[in-house]
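Could you show me some protein's one-letter sequence and the numbers that encode its backbone in two labelled lines?

___
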Amino acid sequence: MENHLKNEHSPYLQQHADNPVDWYPWGEKAFQKAQKEHKPIFLSIGYSSCHWCHVMEHESFEDEKTAKILNEYFVSIKVDREERPDIDKHFQDVYQLMNGRPGGWPASIFLTEDLKPFYSATYIPDEPKYGMMSFTSLLEIVADKYKNEKTTLVDEADKILHHLNPKEDKIQATKLDESIVGRVIDQAKQLFDNQEGGFNKAPKFPQASILDLLLDIYKLTDDKETLNMVLLSLSSMARGGLRDLVDGGFCRYSTDNEWLVPHFEKMTYDNALLSEVYLKAYHATGNDFYKNIAFETLDFMVEKMSHKGLFYSASDADTEGEEGKYFVYSYDKALKSFEKAGIPSKAHETLAQALHITKEGNFEGKNIIRVDDASSLETPYYAEAIEALKKPREKRTYPFIDKKVIVSWNAMMIKSLFKAGRTDEKYLKLAIKSLSRLLESMYINGQLFHSALIDKEPKIHAFLEDYAFLCEALIEAYESTLDEVYLVTATKLANNAIEKYFAGGKWKFSRGEFETNADIYDSSYPSSVSTMISALYSISSLVDIVYKKFVFKTLEIYSYDVMRQPISTPKMSKMVIRYLKDDIIIKAKEDKLKPYIPQLDTLPHPFSLLKNDTNDGYMLCNSNSCFGHEKNFEGIVKILEKRV
């Protein structure tokens, strides 16, 4: 049976085009049908590489009996959350308000015929389990209540919308100061897994934003504990499971604390952000291990996940209806691969042990390839074994790839390529090519678009995140090439974003059909607000200081939330630190001087270290006098050491 999704470009909607459910895309045709027939709307939001979306499709949307109930009593609408993040964001906010916790995908929302939400869930099983009733039972209850208690449902929906859009928006501001650094470190330590790295317990996400922030703090403070949290996390994630040791690239998250068993989908944004963090760790430590993983990740994305310089959005977790089928190995077939590759038989067992390949397996009787220490691989024939394990995969069906181009995610990849280009010129050439292609295909006649199927004309206009991440990529391009065209384009896009989305220090994520507020909290990737003001701060330094007022006003508006819980807003916290950088450097240096101060009778107290901008030096002062006029901080330390 064909439904109304057959002409949609979205790969996710195309996956549902042959369901017996009479799906509609989001739009007037569906809304008019609901109003004409006085039926509630069942809205299902997901994306093509979502494992639980596939599960619900197989259990319920491919089932004739379930489809019959949906078709008789509901108007069913499918939305690709990657294509329409504004719709998804609105209804994720609805879910959070209704349930008191964050939602996820698939999102299952029930609406009145006038688009007012009255019930929300995520995955709903086809049979009673996980403490939930079956999907068909829920449908029957909702249909009955909508027929017999519609007024009550509408009243509840009106209350939800009232709370979702309060008329008064209370703003609490607080002082932004260098104490944010200590709070980030303390909160990171509280959440840190000292055994396996990462933050919080399973399911464990890479949380690249936090790692990036901690690397910045290490650079400012030289705090070794901060660096060690990052390095343990990066090393643990690289061992295998979350990171695909055979093809390269990182999966979205781990279902366990050890980073072993992922959901096997690979997202462009994760691989963009993680490659940048690994590069940053390389520059912080000089250890080639981190650089090699960054390059391997970028190479995977270029080879498997791009076309003509543009990057696809994601690859699936499932193959032929089975999660992880493409990625895992039986013991016998893995050793057979070693044999076919000509690896001496005496090395097979050693390699199997080193790669965690056993007869019992570590994932549903099969094996995810993993090592004990990714930074020290001295097992003979290791490289040959990895190459051998690629051969069976060549005969397997590769996971479905969503060939949608999303501007914000492509911009993240391009920025990472430019970063890598400062170490290896081949990535600079790739970055320039990709940026040119992205602008050519998605920035048309002065109008920026959000997404399009590769080689198709874009139709969906850009959201704040597209402007923000593209501006950052353009600034990175300018700093890598000194081509001022990039800077001019970034400034033009920043002006457009301010005009469209900025009002009194607050930012909208989208306007139009759904006017949604932009978040400051980093979820799967950095928030669009913090990314936008990061770009504006750079433009204020490179073009015109007037842009700095937008940065300060935004930081002021969100200051209370950021200072209270900076670990939850890592990119915004990074912006506060960037704004206060000189003060934070001075505070860190003062702390280093503290051991000397009590022993110096000649030095009046309390002291503070001041930066002398006239000669780019330092002075140690109190309210009455100053001690030391040194060109650099080390000069102050040497004088103090002599006095002690």
Summary: Residues 252 and 409 are 14 Å apart (CA to CA). The domain at 11-164 is CATH 3.40.30.10 (Glutaredoxin). The longest helix spans residues 268-285.
